[in-house]
Amino acid sequence: MTTTTETPTTVRTRQTAAGKKPPRRQREGAAWVFLSPWVLGAAVLTLLPMAVSLYLSFTDYDLFNPPQWVGLRNYTQMFTEDPRYWRSVVATLTYVVIAVPLQLGLALVVALALKSMRRGRAFYRSAFYAPSLLGASMSIALVWRAIFNDGGTVDNLLGTGGWVNQPGWALFAVALLTVWQFGAPMVIFLAGLQQIPGELYEAAAVDGASRWRQFLSITVPMLSPVIFFNLVLQTIQAFQVFTPAFAISAGKGGPADSTLFYTLYLYDRGFVASHMGYASAMAWVLLLVIGAVTAVLFRTSRSWVFYASEGDR
Amino acid sequence: MTTSTAATPAVRKPIAWRRVALHTGCLAALLVMLYPLAWLLATSVKPADEVIASLNLLPSSLEWSNYSTALEGVNEVSVWRLLGNSLFIAGGAVIGNVLSCSLAAYAFARLRFRFRGPLFAFMIATIMLPHHAVLIPQYIIFNQLGMVNTYWPLILPKFLATEAFFVFLIVQFMRGLPRELEEAARIDGAGPFRSFFSVILPLTRPALITTAIFTFIWTWNDFFTQLIYLFSPEKFTLTLALRQFVDASSQSAFGPMFAMSVIALLPIVLFFLAFQRFLVEGMANSGIKG
Predict the structure, then answer these.
(1) Per-residue pLDDT tens for A194-253?
(2) Which of A157, A185, B118, B215 could pair with A107 in a Cys bridge, judged by C-beta atoms 3.0 to 4.6 Å apart?
(3) What Pfam families does the record point to (chain B) (predicted)?
(4) Does the structure show a pLDDT above 80 at B29?
(5) Does residue A110 or residue B49 have the better pLDDT?
(6) Residues of B with CB below 8 A from A129's CB?
(7) Structure confidence by residue, pLDDT tens digits, A252-294
(8) Nearest beta carbon to residue A41 from set B162, B218, B288
């Protein structure tokens, strides 16, 4: 990190030494050629769809007949007349609030354990990471449904009956699937921990700081950018979980709408019931909520995220 | 990264029991985590009556016929066809992402152009954009183009660098390459295209491999997009075929269903075993440099 600060000056002198820079316009042209696929994608597959769905959210549209302008009706119906909508909001928020902290907490604990390990760290790191790659698959979602079903492993061990058939527990089974995939944030935590200079701990140990004290005063502040990164990323991802809820409830969001995640209800409204206008309104509310949550996370981050190398780049 | 870890331990001698406890804890956690996978493997060879009724993880006898039933596939479409379809989509996505994302990344990392700052910020913002916000109009667009129930909606977006996460990943990697390389190439008379293809791209290989592997796995696991775009059984992927089992929950189908689940997971497991270093390092770097 310290070495990179010298390079800009050396580069600049070399640039002038080279002297043969092609004219500015020509270089601009080259840049746009490189960018063209991305620009096309951003325009046609991101910006245009966002604009279109904003328009559609004020219409009644079933894919076959032309959209009918209905003003704010989709939104008022959503907020005031649709109990399933609110159940999907509650299910999603409950899930995010349960799954993300559990997952990140476990990831941090395991990363701390692996950091102080000298042998076998690489092995455990890979082994714990593997579920993050498998967990999003339909195969694992089906395994989850069977393990947490009546007569499945969890029922046999705890005698509670299958979780996936009980409104209070089905959501927790899905949350555990997310926790199971703690490997990805763990790997990021571990890399962050290894970047903390060892001298900080040595100095603290000389001053007589306990391990807990060192954790609070060195590890947490030095790791806070990484914690923040993981928190934002996992929260956004958690809002969009679809496959496990679909598998566990056979696409219905049951029992009693307890796993009717926002995305599942959006799919149901848009693609099963063909209410594309209503689904567009739902998508825009999701977009605004995720935007707001991210903004709040960024806003609060100023008070707890510590950037040691501020202005480094 | 390596120097900081080597510097710490010299001061104090680690206590043996702490290390034992650490390893025991990690091993126990590993066993719990591996249980679902062991369960899947065991169930895929269990006779029908043991799948739910028996508490034993291990089957009393190996029922390989589960696999032969699974190979027959669903809706008269064999597993080989389904596997081929999945591979085609994932392969197309990999080529598209590697190509389009590296092109865009090179422009963002190395070239000067107007609005670079705002465009880069916009690109980063789209990483956080929920997929579902653009899904419905995208569907409508592809529907208008007559592309629903084809593979175009699944592959074409990858050729347009829509997965900004990978653009960002490659940008970060390219920023770490010494600029002197291109200076030298330019003095030798190479334009931006020559120096991209013959100097930068070969050096970016680790990031490209990471992009390729993650694209493959994410596309392979993808369910939502395939669910809305594909509806002819002969175009189904393994994931969509497995979905058929979600609706049909009769217990006799359990063995073949999990045999097919194993088949569907196999490519990911193989990829993981072959490329685990790239995957783990790629994931680790995504958070640190950001």
Answers:
(1) 888 889 998 998 988 888 899 998 999 999 989 998 998 899 889 989 999 998 888 788
(2) A185
(3) BPD_transp_1
(4) yes
(5) A110
(6) 276, 279-280, 283
(7) 887 888 899 999 999 999 999 999 999 999 999 999 998 898 8
(8) B162
Among candidates B128, B167, B272 on the partner chain, residue whose Cβ is nearest the Cβ of A130: B272
Q: Does B22 touch chain A (CB under 8 A)?
A: yes
* Chain B residues inside the 8 Å CB shell of A246: 223, 243, 246
Nearest to B290 among A129, A229, A240 (CB): A229
- Triad B210, B214, B219: Cα angle to 5°: 150
Whether residues A136 and B123 touch (CB distance < 8 A) is answered with: no
Out of B8, B128, B159, whose CB is closest to A37? B159
Over residues A85-106, the pLDDT tens digits come to 999 999 999 999 999 999 999 9
pLDDT of A45-68, one tens digit each?
A: 999 999 999 999 999 998 888 999
**Chain A interface includes B104 (CB < 8 A):** yes
Contact across the interface for A270 and B136, Cβ inside 8 Å: yes
A38, B115 in Cβ contact below 8 A? no
- For B239, the closest chain A residue by CA position comes to A138
State the average pLDDT over residues A30-38: 93
Q: Per-residue DSSP letters for chain B?
A: -HHHHHHSTTSSPPPHHHHHHHHHHHHHHHHHHHHHHHHHHHHTTS-GGGTTT---SS-SS--THHHHHHHH-BTTB-HHHHHHHHHHHHHHHHHHHHHHHHHHHHHHHH---TTHHHHHHHHHHHHHS-HHHHHHHHHHHHHHTT-TTSSHHHHGGGGGT--HHHHHHHHHHHHTS-THHHHHHHHTT--HHHIIIIIIHHHTHHHHHHHHHHHHHHHHH--HHHHHH--SGGG--HHHHHHHHHH---GGGHHHHHHHHHHHHHHHHHHHHHHHHHHHHHHHHHHH--
**For the residues of A128-172, what is the DSSP string, one character each?**
HHHHHHHTTSHHHHHHHHHHTSTTSHHHHHH-S--GGGSHHHHHH
Chain centre distance of CA A269: 24
Nearest residue in chain B measured CA to CA from A133: B217
pLDDT at B252 over 50: yes
Q: Which residue of B has its CA nearest to A63?
A: B140
Cβ separation B53–A151 shorter than 8 A: yes
Say how many CA atoms lie within 13 Å of A238 toward its Cβ.
32
Is A276 close to B140, i.e. CB distance below 8 A?
yes
User: Is ipTM strictly over 0.90?
Assistant: no
Predicted confidence band at B287 (pLDDT cuts at 50, 70, 90)?
low
Q: Kindly state whether A288 is in contact with chain B, defined as any CB-CB distance less than 8 angstroms.
A: no
Nearest to B156 by CA among B171, B148, A284: B148
